[in-house]
Amino acid sequence: MKKIILVPALLLMFAGALLTGCAGGSEKKVENAKEDVNDAKKDLQQAENNYAEEWQKFKDEYEVKISDNENKIVKLRVKASHETGEAKAKYENKIAELEQKNHRLKERLESYKDEGRDKWEAFKNDVHHDWEELENDFKNSEW
């Protein structure tokens, strides 16, 4: 008789322990999930702040470079003004080309609109590539 009562009692205790343990685990899982969501929100906010800082730094850097190029172009115009004939025309054409490329770079920088991280990376690489080409044009010009 004791065995008959003992087995169901043990089963009830075991089932109770399982249910109690499961309920507590679910609450912990929900709590952990909430913490994970909050952490993800914080990470996203931090990434957005870093992205904004990176964009501003990039823009400031290239605005200075473009301004430096504008100063170089003014100096080249002064040099070209001392030339005559074909040499002067050649220099003025080259200066106009450099000025146009510099202006396009400036317009691209000013017209950039945030379209996500992937497009930002592509834009940044394109601007850097165009910048290097422009710098090579300045260096390789016959002055």
List descriptors.
single chain; mainly alpha; 3 helices; rod-shaped
Task: Indicate the topology.
Blueprint: H1 2-81, H2 85-111, H3 117-140
Fraction of helical residues: over 70%
Q: What overall geometry do the principal axes of the alpha carbons give?
A: rod-shaped
Outline the low-pLDDT stretches. none
| Helix-and-strand structural type | mainly alpha
Summarize model confidence as the mean pLDDT: 83
Give the radius of gyration.
34 Å
Q: What quaternary form is this?
A: single chain
Structure annotation, total helices = 3
How many domain units? 1
In percent, how much strand structure appears in the residues? under 5%
First CA to last CA: what distance? 112 Å
> What's the count of strands?
0
Secondary-structure element sequence? HHH
Q: Tell me about the largest β-sheet.
A: none
Structure description:
The protein has one domain. The chain is mostly helical and 143 residues long. The model has no long low-confidence stretch (mean pLDDT 83). It has helices spanning 2-81, 85-111, 117-140. The longest helix has 80 residues, at 2-81.
In brief, what are we looking at here?
With 143 residues, the chain is an all-alpha fold.
